[in-house]
Amino acid sequence: MQPAVRRGLYRQFLGLLVMAVVLPSLAFGAAMVLARYRAELDEIDARTAASAHVLAHELDESLAALQASLHVLAAAGARHRLDWSVELPELQRRYPPILTLIATDARGRVIGAAPAAAAARAVGLDVSDRDYFRQPARSGRDYISDAFVGRGLGSDPLVVVSVPRYRDGAFAGVIEASLAPAHVYDENGHGDYETVLLDRAGRVIHASGGIGLKFMQRAADTGFAPALAQRDAGAARRAVPVMPDGGHAFVAAARTRGGWTLYAVAPRELAARPALERAMSMIQLLLLAVLGAALAFVWYARVLARASSLLLQRLRALASGAAPAPGLPAGDVPMPEELQPVLAAIVDLSTRLDHAHAELRQSLAEREHDVAQRTEQLRAALRELDRVACTDPLTGALNRRGRDEFVQALAAQGARLGSVAVLLLDVDHFKAYNDRYGHRAGDEALRTAVAAIRAEVREGDDAVVRAGGEEFCVLIPGVGRARVLNIARAILLGLYRRDIEHRDSEHGRLTCSIGVAMAYSVDELDAAMDRADEALYRAKRRGRNGFCS
């Protein structure tokens, strides 16, 4: 009879478990997943709109900075006779996204151009029929073009910015800058979002790789048309089929001050993926809970059977006056509350055993405490040894081993890494500084250089490495080229402002030179290091206390 009874209890318990736990949990979990999925869609929709406006603002600021630089050059030309072969290359150096620069006279003849390779072909060309000349000449206002293909200095995809220049109150020509569409704005660092930039005629200036649009395509004639129709209709945003594979995405648009339209595109899978992950997690937790409850029931049924059997044997032994059977310690068996009055009659028989167990547990607890303390001390010592092994003792910067571990951590990020900026920094005339002021002052100068570097980089996210002697390497992941050049400029200024006297330097104080390069994956780091090294030597040849890229 006992096995049949046990099987009946199992069926009843499993039925109650399904009715009382599994079905309500599934219904509640499904409702939570659905609600969260809808909230994710709303949140992605809102973030998409915010991203579009942020990107449009960044684009406006970038173009405004370029226009300001062109106006500064035009204003200088109004006061002085400039050597365009010098001024235009200098502006291009300070604004790397520029492909070409030209300056014209009032009749539309090119009188200066950069780079030097373009100047040989451009000087003397008549560009009076170009919109970038005619519009500023006629209106006196700045001009930002739509997408077009160059035909004077090449056949590259371009957008241009031009500003009028005046001399003695009369129109004297224009200064025009040509930009590659891919360099109009920095699309790095926007996670899973895609971007599309359209000109005033609705043609593609630039689109990120996941959208599949090409330069100067009419967006209305492509798979991106549903996004345009949604925007023109002015309806509430919803996911539309704009992805190349037919997938749906949320699309938000923002106008730039120049009349372009920037779209931020967020695939709907951004919400579906976490919702599916949560559903799988909930199912796994539910299965674990059901399994745990079933195991607990089986265990408790066995405990009850063992307790009943033990009590029965003890009672028979007491009734017959015989000693309890060996190997049956009553105190070690969990006893249900209903059976505890029976157990109380034989508790005194196991008192001494309980005392022995208590002493043993106390001894084990003390030993475990000692082991835990020693383990923590050992871990702290190992952490300190690892830190010392990865750090240059003089400057506190990372050594070669620290750099290798940092690069391994970057490699683990895979496709999420994005770009990595490499800055090679060399303290100018450091040997002469050591010879004049002594090695102790030289060591302090190196520590000062590291402090100037660390003041401009992110603690924990970026790596400052002493590559050897007075040379340092800085690795900065996840930033664009313009930001890196600003960091290099800030490091130069930070060290210069510390005003450390150096009589053997042409600048009269301690300075450094910096070479800058970009790597777009960890595999490109070695090549980027070589390019940064070449740029460092160019900076030194140009007079030091500067940077090149």
TrEMBL record:
Domain GGDEF: from-to ranges: 418-549
Protein's recorded name: diguanylate cyclase
Entry EC number(s): 2.7.7.65
PROSITE patterns the UniProt entry points to: GGDEF
Stored CDD domains: GGDEF, PDC1_DGC_like
InterPro entries referenced in this protein's UniProt entry, alphabetically: Diguanylate_Cyclase, GGDEF_dom, Nucleotide_cyclase, Rev_trsase/Diguanyl_cyclase
Residue ranges crossing the lipid bilayer per the database entry: 282-305
Pfam family, one: GGDEF
GO MF entries: diguanylate cyclase activity
Lineage: Bacteria, Pseudomonadati, Pseudomonadota, Gammaproteobacteria, Lysobacterales
Keyword tags: Membrane, Nucleotidyltransferase, Transferase, Transmembrane, Transmembrane helix
Reactions performed catalytically: 2 GTP = 3',3'-c-di-GMP + 2 diphosphate
